[in-house]
Records
---
Amino acid sequence: MRASTRVIWTVSVLMLAAVSEAIFPLPFLPFLPGFHNDVHGNNDALEVSKPVATGGNAGGKRRSGGAQEAQTNWPGKWELFLENSGVSAMHAGLMPLINQVQFYDATIWRISKIKLPPGVPCHVVNAKTNKIDCWAHSVLVDVNTGALKPLSLATDTWCSSGGLTVNGTMVSTGGYGGGANTARYLAACPDCGWHEYPQALAAKRWYSTQATLPDGKFFIIGGRDAMNYEYIPEEGQNNKKLYDSLLLKQTDDPEENNLYPFVWLNTDGNLFIFANNRSILLSPKTNQVIKEFPQLPGGSRNYPGSGSSALLPIHLYMKNPKVIPAEVLVCGGTKHDAYYRASKKIFEPALQDCARIRINSAKPRWKIETMPTPRVMSDTVLLPNGDILLVNGGKRGCSGWGYGKDPNFAPTLYKPRGARGKRFRVLAATNIPRMYHSVAIAIPDGKVLVAGSNTNDGYQYNVEFPTELRVEKFSPPYLDPALATLRPKIATSPKQIRYGNNFNVKVNLNQKDVTKQNLKLHMLAPSFTTHSISMNMRMLLLGIGGVNPAGAGSFEVQTIAPPSGNVAPPGYYLLFAVYKGVPSTGEWIQIV
């Protein structure tokens, strides 16, 4: 087709699609000439950087007028927090206010390392044979003391999804077998237990992704043999309505590679959904696909390819632009046939790239960087200062029972606002392999809680990678003891805020050069983490109106709440004061 003919044909098609958008949904766009962009196609949609630095200080001055960060070559520190977490941490979520992390595994195994407490009835597995299960498959772990509280679960949570309601209740969805249609609720209180509704979902959700919407309700998509999505009903109700997902149907290859899709709420209220190597923007109001993004070349990024992803911190101001920028990061993964080859005992190297895309750009394109090492099954953690920690996983193979090899012991720090080519830094290594079914989650003291790893069908110990029950904490470089005097402390802050309202935070900090250029306020929405996906993880860099002295060693920071639920869904966040890149301990704050 000559270029002139191609242009005429394309313009005609676009005009027709604009007149009748509903007639030409997602499948139509790929047929436009040159639409799918890969390394052999339209390179305008792809930008590849040179190999990156793998050590030393990657800090320096932040771009976009950012303040000079405190300098440190400290590589971080690992500490053993718990010898026995009770259950293997396949899933993790931080509960607001009570500062406890919920770990749960799969009830199908009928065993763990902690019994249900006295007075809690055992789960009846089979009423005809009177088979019972008295092991706990869910525990609350106090992130400060390590105290464990076992909880009873009846439905199977194996490979499920989750998120937090506006009032801080954890909603766990899907799972295996009889648990696949279930919605479970656990309130954030010391004496609360699970409430389970086995018929809440219209489709079976095994390996699905749950996302919080601007009004605080939930969207859930995918799962094995579930090429659709739905909206989670109110507690106690059952949903019957499904919406087909053409994206999932078109990205389902022989190894699947589109389970646990990445879903991020865009700042315009629409949903960015990434599956396998393709992504779209979906309106939860109209259920129409608004945009399809260029393909990300190189391989598969979703389960069992199992790369990881983050929505980069959202920069807000006292007065925000009409379109608030949003950028998505996708790191690691595997070649498309990695699962098949691993089944033949051929463990291919994982992907070694990180790619980011500005999803509100008029011409979005992937910008690709090279990580210091390959990564699959890793966790991506937003740190309180806005940096990102890539931790856990392996360097070869993929997700699955025994399908991952060569543990990646050393986490990598990624500074998203650093200079290209200097954003990565390899940090101190652990000595515990964290492979398939590992988790990592940021906690209020600025550390990262790391747990799990079970590549076995059940609790097994005399194997290459035993079922792992030890829990570690990792202290990122900003917790360098030499920077202790730079660490601020939030003295007072509101417990609740409303969209667009001004509020003040009092910060204790014994430093002289404190200005609105170097003292910031960040809000972090805690994630639900499993299978290398951190659902609903979100960070807001608040606009600062002023920083004024408020007595000896104290400052009053003037700021403004996020403008809407599109930018920040209602609910609980951890509020951090950050001075020259060094964060305070987080305080809970609720958007209502």
---
Amino acid sequence: MRGRPDGGQKKRLITSVFVVAIFIGFLYAYYGSSNRGSSALEYGKSLRKLGSSYLGGEDDNDGKQDEASKFGDVEDDVVPKSFPVCDDRHSELIPCLDRNLIYQMRLKLDLSLMEHYERHCPPPERRFNCLIPPPSGYKVPIKWPKSRDEVWKANIPHTHLAHEKSDQNWMVVKGEKIIFPGGGTHFHYGADKYIASIANMLNFSNDNINNEGRLRTVLDVGCGVASFGAYLLSSDVITMSLAPNDVHQNQIQFALERGIPAYLGVLGTKRLPYPSRSFELAHCSRCRIDWLQRDGILLLELDRLLRPGGYFAYSSPEAYAQDEEDLRIWKEMSALVERMCWRIAAKRNQTVVWQKPLNNDCYMARAPGTLPPLCHSDDDPDAVYGVQMEACITPYSDHDQKARGSGLAPWPARLTAPSPRLADFGYSSEMFEKDTESWRNRVDSYWNLLSPKIQSNSLRNLMDMKAHLGSFAAALKEKDVWVMSVVPEDGPNTLKLIYDRGLIGSIHNWCEAYSTYPRTYDLLHAWTVFSDIEKRGCSGEDLLLEMDRILRPTGFVIIRDKQSVVDFVKKYLRALNWEAVATTADASSDSDKDGDEVVFIVQKKIWLTSESLRDTE
């Protein structure tokens, strides 16, 4: 056979070359895309799956807890020396509100119902398990209260709202900063004057919107950059500023950068993540919501959230315009709210304020068959996480019916006064008072540990990841901070007790990403959160990456948990670019049989990707 062309050998050679080329291409695509824009603080390139799959990987969790969930069993040799850094395009990634994910998964959503702005979390195999990089030129945020009026443009490099809303004084670009004059769509001349005018319409004492402490919690729907909520703070009124990630997609990001309480959400098909009877006032300033759709279901969601005697302030053309379409909408909306037993408390110029009844008397007096109907007796108005809205009226409890109202003390007394709804959980006033005192001592201890690292204005946006009765937030009243008190959706739904204290928060499942932008909180407090998700078989590593996503550079994490959890977190400090600040045992804690709780405080380092550094230079 010598000298004869060997066709088979030639084919085998070509096939081998082809296979090798595909394999090299696969390695480049997998590792190259994962490590693009690698961190300036680069500790290595080890990449290992520890709890859920990386991009494009397979989820091999067959229902059992994996390595990362068993905190006491994670060996040093399986902990990555560094996490990959996400591409700079993902510097504003919100995993459960990612429109690219919706497109890629071909989800069939009804755009008219705003389903595309609701939460749709990625399955494990589609999670971005990488560190979210800050944008080019990122700076430590301006401190409160100065931040109310200005932020660094580099931190949120989006100026389209300044041009689009230039006639409404939303925001103005000035050099390296974005300035917020305090205007809005219906209050061009300042939110402070607009707020005072609403108080005057309602005959509140001294035109003060807090009504001598009786009005404390507010929901601002379609809030823009949250200037309404920003200017309510000086009146001791706290606002949950709510808006979707829509065409004005960075409005909530601006609000949080300013140090104003805010949340990404939409009135779509699911209940908002707040319990019934949470707010004294709801507000909509030209929020462009069709309140008449689906038998008034969105207005009925506001009704669920308002306290007895609560107000809805509505500033919109329908309230004053005289063209045919606006008159039609006003007529139909007036008829709807009348059937809901709301009454007009005040109407002036462009604004109308409706008031919800104090008890069930009006509901009981309606003619049989009147729509909207009362909700069924087995409907739980406080069940909200992933629960569909219902086009029905939530009647008051027997207690509220007898009390002709919520029975809450005025602010600030309500912060430490036991809520009438404590009885719903079988909690006593003594238990409430003990919890309040216990957390006051714990927070004092935290601040002593943090004192070498912080000044009086170092912290502004705080999150309590497992808030229980809200006593962590209550203990911070004298600090110039606000706290998002998060109640896990699988535990006692105590969020209504937190709102009854005059605080704010949301329901959440920590096996999923939170509805906020990256780099929005200065401090995260995690009390047994890791132990809780371990019991559910969720990944501790995923939770660490999520905490890193929402934590600002130079921000802090306080972990209060069992020793094995602290040991687990310590193994990831280098990979996360975190550094330990303090560790202390708490032998006095009311811990369970697993042993005494340990307090571990860490700080996130500030870093930029190599791409961002080049852009900055």
---
Amino acid sequence: MSTTTSSSSFLNGERAVVLFFIAHILFSLPFSLLLSHGVPLSLLALAASFIEISYDAAASSSSLFRTRRGASSGILLGAVTLPALLLSKLTQLSRGFSLAQVNLQEIHYTTLQYWATSATSFVVLVFLSFVLLHRTPLSRKDWGLGFGLCFLFLQASLCVLALASTSSQSLQLAFKLSWVLGHGLAAVMLIQHFLGTFPSCASIGEVLLVTAGIVLYFGDMLLLTVMRLCGLLMSSDLVTAEYETSRSEIGIIIQGLLLGLLLYPIPFKYILRVWEWSTNTASAESKRYCEIRRSIIFISLFVLVMVGIVPLWMQFVHEFHLHPILWVLSFVLSDPFKRLSLCIYWVCVICLSVLYVYDISKNSRVERILLRKYYHLLAVLMFVPALILQPEFLDLGFGAALAVFLTLEIIRIWRIWPLGQPIHQFMNAFTDHRDSDFLIVSHFSLLLGCALPIWLSSGYNDRPLAPFAGILSLGIGDTMASLIGHKYGVLRWSKTGKKTIEGTAAGITSVLASCWLLLLLLASSGYIFTQHWFSLLLSVTVSGLLEAYTAQLDNAFIPLFFYSLLCL
């Protein structure tokens, strides 16, 4: 590796789009947030850029981690996505606070989450830097890694100063620092576990985004539980009321379901090991009974965790007047005509579409990447009417769908009799190069890409297009870019890539047209559009260019980018 980094390698398409995205966020910040939060984000982006360049150069000659083939590391994209999103959300909440529509506790808690995600990226980048220093020969060290570590040191210093300025006592500062650094250490351990358990399933940037999100979600649950457990600490200087924000019943139920399912494989794995150690499965008949017993253990433990333990946690951290399962039934039946009709509509659309697409995948030569775009269009048909008519019920529906997907994936991975193998065969009909036998992620990324902007908009939201960010960017933009680019695309963005200028232009144009139609529909309900059209055009264009240049899982990154830009 040379001792200098060329400008051409520094400014490839993906990095240029991400750095422009960060610059646009910084330009949109109020001056107070720019100094305290924007400068650390810019330093984090610069550090991630240099470390990504060094990592890609080292990985091209030796294998550092078993990541997804054909994808770049995506370190910069993975490191800045969540901090940039939370900074955009913090900007939006600041506007609401100036209008007396947002309380100060919500701003404090979002600020803590911002520093937690920044610290997560910081610790992961330090970990990757040490991996590079350890595995790269001394003669091949470059200055880029040194620059990256310098920027990381400056970013960490500003983070400590910002946290110290909001802490009245040293104990409170120590708690905040240990809290945010704990997120980073947990993310590093989770990244190592993920890459070891599911090799070649994701890039470094994709794993960083997923683990940072999971750790942040677990951290929120842990803080909520600790505050509920330790009533005395809530009045102390260590855990104060500034972290207490209002949470809805639907949010608690979704959080309990998803975290319960993510934790479920841990006890199941150890119980299964103990049981298999104590039994003899030498004969074929014994192996058959073994599969049946594994299924019985799976179902029994699943019912215990999801029907017993998880609802107990929900009731502990939030005052439910009913058992959470009964609360869900009561919520659905509180408006039975609209909500049950919507359920029937969803079931009919899903059944017809899945059977149709599955039949095409078995009997035609249509590329799988195009077949999968049918599901993107399906997302538009299912979610847009629900988001306009029943947004709270759609929140619950997303949580239920993700819970079902997680359950099916657990059954598929563990090959639980009798559904494990049929589910595996069925899901393989819709996989592409980004999936593997170890883990199929495309359906998760599509559903989460549509759901996250809606969940993030559940509180204060002065940008009515923001909840539609995932549906517009994936259901409309990504689909039109793929279809038009595949059929009519001639001019390619790069010599080695498949993305075409015609496809990108079609995606951007289709999203802008959909935004215009949505605004007309929203105007009929009394909404007055206050966002500048130039800002909307810029948001759509940047998201479209990211889709054109990135080799990462675009279902995961593009909706978060688009949502962040729409919030500004």
